[in-house]
Amino acid sequence: xxxxxxxxxxxxxxxxxxxxxxxxxxxxxxxxxxxxxxxxxxxxxxxxxxxxxxxxxxxxxxxxxxxxx
Amino acid sequence: xxxxxxxxxxxxxxxxxxxxxxxxxxxxxxxxxxxxxxxxxxxxxxxxxxxxxxxxxxxxxxxxxxxxxxxxxxxxxxxxxxxxxxxxxxxxxxxxxxxxxxxxxxxxxxxxxxxxxxxxxxxxxxxxxxxxxxxxxxxxxxxxxxxxxxxxxxxxxxxxxxxxx
Lengths: 69, 165
Known about the structure:
The structure holds 2 protein chains of 2 kinds.
Chain A: E1 11-14, E2 18-26, E3 29-35, H1 45-65
Antiparallel strand pairs in A: 1-2, 2-3
Chain B: E1 3-8, E2 12-17, E3 22-23, E4 35-40, E5 47-52, E6 59-63, H1 65-68, E7 92-99, E8 108-109, E9 115-118, E10 123-126, E11 137-138, E12 158-159
Parallel strand pairs in B: 4-12
Antiparallel strand pairs in B: 1-2, 3-4, 4-5, 5-6, 6-7, 7-8, 7-9, 8-11, 9-10
């Protein structure tokens, strides 16, 4: 993993058309601004984890309910 | 067309042809399997089974989101559809994973992470919608069971009982 130290208002550029800017730091939370083309997907990691949990829960339920559906 | 027998833990051995397989080249989120079958018990059932062709134990209940949520809007960043090779003439089908419990009334649907398929190539991906839909949406919030207008997706749906090897 590449580790870069940045201060508020400083920016990181990824490739030609993605920038990540540190907008501010309040307590232990960092506000980040991302500029990317519309074709690039940006989501919080928690969204992927939540979807993965639902997939796993759905797969676990099969034995119990397969006669029902 | 070549046939093969797919063993499953819940539905017995299924004899299927290659053109009935669905392909999810990148796997589902957290599930690496890339070959799947779509199963049903009844032609009008709102629920289908997405059965892994690679892991007999793995099957997930899925449904057509628009059957339960007619306003569901499939806004997905184009990058998420890379590899599906969707052309204007292709039909796109969406399926959502259902978290099923013993009580039908308690079922939830994951509207945030639908599976999108190019019906022509039977190739799909699980994506994250741009709209922040819930991952655990109570299923019966808008439509009761007698109000459903069920149309199965334009994908090969295998009727259980007919394909048993």
